[in-house]
Queue: 4 jobs
Job 1
Amino acid sequence: MAGKIKAIRGMRDILPPETSRWQAVENAAREAFRVYGYREIRLPLIERTELFARSIGTDTDIVSKEMYTFPDRHGDSLTLRPEATAAVLRAVLENGLDKAAGVKKLYTLGPMFRYERPQKGRYRQFHQINCEALGSDAPEVDAEVILLLMEILKKVHLGTNRLLVNSLGCPECQARFKAALSQFLMSREGLCEDCQRRRVTNPLRVLDCKSVHCKEILKDAPVLKDYLCPDCAAHFARVLELLSRFGVTYEEQPRLVRGLDYYTRTAFEVVAVGLGAQDAVAGGGRYNGLAQQLGGPELPAIGFAIGEDRLMEVLPENLGQDDGKKVFLAALGTSAMDKAFSLLQALRQEGIAAEMDFSGRSLKAQMSLADRLAADYTVILGDRELETGKANLRRMATGDQQEVTLSLLPMVLAGL
Ligand code: AMP
């Protein structure tokens, strides 16, 4: 016998009933996006490798070791998207969306791919909800984006969590900070091999290193906040003021840089208590220079990504499990089955979830199927019911019964 084919390591199937929880999160996000004036954009899963190399930065973990990159049949280098922001910008510029007046507010949902070592909360195909606001550098937009993120997390009943915020400054602040950081790192022994390279090529990335030893060394490192120019400092202060005004609790985290090179000014992350090592459920920030880096005009922007896989681990078990009332029609004999099929369709037309068994099994077998399907109501149809045109509608939770005229069943159930 041929061997069974399995899914690829780090890529998993998400099965029912778990999918109901995912739908609940996505529905809540869509609803929040609607209220905040965001519209959906759908993008390809594959882009030219150059898009990510140019935006995320060649010295980041993502680009240097985590991308699924392959030549297509033509020899062009393509990559399964490791994140969405660069692709959103590519699409915005390519389709001229940047030319519309005002702030361009877009969201997108879908899988991302990174060749990381799989572990709890870390997958090679994972799923994000992405939000991007393009065309404004106003601190109000930063605040709005963070408020929107926190609103989504509240809607899905995320428990204890911490919002970490920092400002990475503009390119000038970053240049001054990088010089100071690099000087500090050069004077220290014992950095990991990667960081010894990064302290020369891209010192900001050292702040993101997972090595305990590097983290220890960094405790004495200079912090970005001390290198912000007056404009960047004022921008950050206004964002924090707005967050406070709307009751959002935040923690300033002076070493938060995030794993991608394109961030400027505001950067933030939400970590959930109880998630272990991979505890960031969402992250984002401003990327004012990215459009130009991708050959476009000046287009200041900010966005965030929610990691759905991780979020699911900490959300309530019963989230989204209430999918409305369900009816099971049990039928005995060919005529009753025929009648039940008509009723089944009539119920479904009313938007009521209805099921029956087509295999002509015993009443006992049908009722145990109703149990397995967790039917809220059952109706048994036999010769007597066909003759009288009436049947008992039984509420499974209580055992209560009421006699109902069959033609009125959809109406009665709709009203329950
Ligand atoms: P990033 O695009 O790296 O800023 O990540 C944004 C969010 O996506 C993180 O906060 C995580 O929740 C999630 N995420 C990133 N990488 C993975 C992964 N390999 N597996 C599961 N979730 C991930």
Note: The radius of gyration is 28 Å.
Job 2
Amino acid sequence: MSLTAIISDIHGNLPALEAVLADARERGAERFWCLGDIVGYGANPTECLTILRELCQHIIRGNHEQAVLDGPYGFNPLAAAAIRWTRAEVLKVEDQLPFISELPERVDTDHAVLVHGSPSQPLDEYLFREDTLDHLPRNRDYSPKLARSFRHIDRPCFVGHTHIPGVIDGEFRWTAPAECDNEYDTRGLACIVNVGSVGQPRDGDTRASYALFDGQVVTFRRIIYDVESAALAILNTRDLPDPLGRRLIEGW
Ligand code: ZN
């Protein structure tokens, strides 16, 4: 399989997206797959949509795309404010809303399953490290939530949504990128790989996160980008709440 860059949760962060795409090309990526949440939070949603629509072989619908279509139900006030502004921006660009409305919730390729949240609830279920066996209450050795997800896949499944990179294997164990030297061999087996977030990392590391995949081995990448300019763009947009800019600088 040709080397594929898998990106997620760009959230309208154009400097982060450009830095990630440049790194992926430098590393020899020939294809691009996107797991959703291109928009929401950040100041450049339509620019990110335009670039990725042109570039990606597959784009999955995220919960922020869904909220642009249906309204920000269940969103916190900051995220909801960003969705209202984002929808107005998207409506200014011809064809973008229809494009969003046609995005699939799941794509199966020869080597991978692509969803935004989880295999059992593609749009909006979170799968955290805390759902894996090492973090369950004492003496519990079974996670019904993860079992439900693994029933829906028979090969590596790529997700985003939590904005925290890592792998959950078929034994329901968690491996962080640092624990595998940023290289995880799936051996083609069912597992759930979270590629992290390009535009709003939440693990305390402000660098953009994405992954490369050759059909078997996942390589986790962290990329330095101009965080200040992404934050400033949010602060300078009147209808976007300022804390959404500040959190980029703090990495959560
Ligand atoms: Zn997201």
Note: Residues 21 and 70 are 30 Å apart (CA to CA).
Job 3
Amino acid sequence: MKIIMLGAPGAGKGTQAKQIAGKYEIPHISTGDIFRANIKNGTELGKKAKEYMDQGLLVPDELTCDLVMDRIQQDDCKNGFVLDGFPRTIPQAEALDAALTKIGQKMDYAIDVDVPDENIVNRMSGRRACLDCGATYHIVSLPPKTEGKCDHCGSDLVLREDDKPETVQKRLTVYHDKTQPLIDYYKNQGILKSVDGTQPMEAVFTAITDILGA
Ligand code: AP5
């Protein structure tokens, strides 16, 4: 099963993608996590990506597409994968389609987690992230067991640099401009499914598994 998670920054794509990956035993591929790992490790890619991410801008397609195309051709992806944060532009979607067509495959579902802008800024200011293992929390709706510490690896939790309100606004503008057109792109392919992302996390996951099947 090959799934794309669509939705505004903070809509809950990552939260749901992790659960989907667990239930259907497919890898969770988050371009945001890949870039953050590169930033943490001080790689050239990380240095370039950081310049864009800190401003709430998209990392250029040429730095992003090859990375994902390589990843989805690895062995663990042969039964499918869930893409979180990719594609984010029409050229990225076209590159993905072209790469899959070459190997006689196509995406099965694009799931749009729909959350209005007014809910997003609040959610993001309450998010806390572990930059070591990628786990995310929310100070109200999903608090860690020990304040400020990751449940999984014990590392310190941080407010992501790009989760500050002014950067979130910029990310929302970029989302509407560059990423929202993908909703029509996948509607036209007949694979778009929408879920109401304002519901509690468990209800969102149930809505998704109703779409994907047992
Ligand atoms: P990325 O990491 O992909 O950020 P994003 O898309 O902006 O998404 P987020 O991770 O911020 O949010 P999410 O939807 O996953 O929400 P989450 O589940 O954490 O990308 C970061 C940056 O990298 C981009 O801005 C860009 O610069 C660059 N980048 C990445 N991919 C790129 C690409 N393909 N091309 C170019 N550039 C790229 O949930 C948010 C919070 O809400 C959490 O605290 C969570 O606990 C809480 N929450 C989740 N669901 C619910 C719920 N139902 N009810 C209440 N709270 C909830």
Note: Residues 2-117+168-212 form a domain with the Rossmann fold fold (CATH 3.40.50.300).
Job 4
Amino acid sequence: MQPSSPSLSPDSPARSYPAGGLAFPHRDLTGIGQLARHEILYLLDEAEQWVELNRQSQKRADLLSGLTIINAFFENSTRTLLSFEIAGKRLGADVVNMHAATSSVKKGETLIDTAMTLNAMRADAIVIRHASSGAVRLIAEKVDCPVLNAGDGQHEHPTQALLDALTIRHALGLPKGSDLNGLRVTICGDILHSRVARSNILSLTALGCEVSVCAPPALMPAEIEVMGVKVFHDFDAALKGAQVVMMLRLQMERMQGQFIPSPREYRHLYGLSLERLAKAEAGALVMHPGPMNRGIEIDSQVADHVERSLITRQVERGVAIRMACLEVLTRRARQLPGWEPLGGENA
Ligand code: CP
């Protein structure tokens, strides 16, 4: 059973957008925080066609033929790297992956020098993942092509938030153009270190959701209320009324010191079991961006639940969203009518 559909805003679906490049007047995608609500919806709507294409046996659309996309990943990834690679290839681009572990970064090359090197190779788009918040913005300021943030430190992971919103929209049976007005979403886990939480809070609140966040006090950012969320430290209380429950992993690699008493204690207080899921709204849906720590923040019975878990559906939408982002952000380079080069701060 699915949660009841939230009420739709009066102008959805069949939404209309500003013409041409005014629909998305940004060169880069560095964060959801840079986007207006209609720009988020524009990317979601553009992704719908790619969800359809990706379900065909022939998955090629050669719109980006002749373009070069570089995926520069300075931090580990499975889903984001592979889906950006698949997205670029399905759109017909030449896609090159740069793994920091086997690059000259290991010989001491600076981030700026690496960025200038990629720029000199005349990439048409660069996708960056980096452990430092703000690294993607720094690179975007140094290169001549669109830059897409594939996750920077604790800052943002915009394409994850977009794929999550699209997954929710589909799970609720909402058509193209729909927002998520009135949907109650609870995000639980290591909110402090999570770029996924930050991007999702920005995206889901922009789309009209009522967002609650839940974490132990040590893993909750100070003054997160200013982002328009309700704050909980008691998971059972945070689940009450939730129609979507988004679980996050403990990011041990970003923790220096003792943030939780023990994984076992954490699971007891903040792990999502089937028993605990029953405290949410009947039929509540479960999400997780991955990678999961089964048996800590989420039990396998929940993660693998055929009706309730959206986790593999999130991965599927990830390819479509990344196709949409690459296609939209390269329209100026491809000189599509109405997509003239940007001036001013967006250039
Ligand atoms: N969700 C996510 O970013 O996963 P990866 O780290 O595997 O890319």
Note: Residues 311-329 form the longest helix (19 residues).
